[in-house]
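Now for my pick.
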Amino acid sequence: MSEKKKGKVTESEEEGNLQVSYIFPNGDRYEGECCGSTEGVVVRRGMGKHTSASGVTYTGEWHDDKMNGRGTLEHPSGALYEGDFKDNMYHGTGTYSFSDGTKYCGSFSKNRLEGDGEFTDSQGLVWIGGFHNKAAPGLKLKLSM
């Protein structure tokens, strides 16, 4: 919101978060908490829901006008990410469910699969191991007994 909404904030409002409902000029919508920054602009902080004009919806924690903390990002395609965010990126632990029914559950770093995780393929088989960007050498099939 800091780039789109440059309204001044009074001192009493700076003491805590405000509840807002805001429609951006491009058609995006934000409903949730915000606060005044040191520059005197309103920024998203706390819990909120942002829906883009294209239908992408983020519901979760905001800090410094960015997705930071726990949240859920839903795409119109049906793809869904639930987990940790840092500076508007998947970062930390989370689950990405692809629109084709496949799913990755594990570590993310700057929007990339990074570290230990589990990938469930379209047939329901679960593959475990280390992931690095688009590569996953040495994955092992997890046996269900």
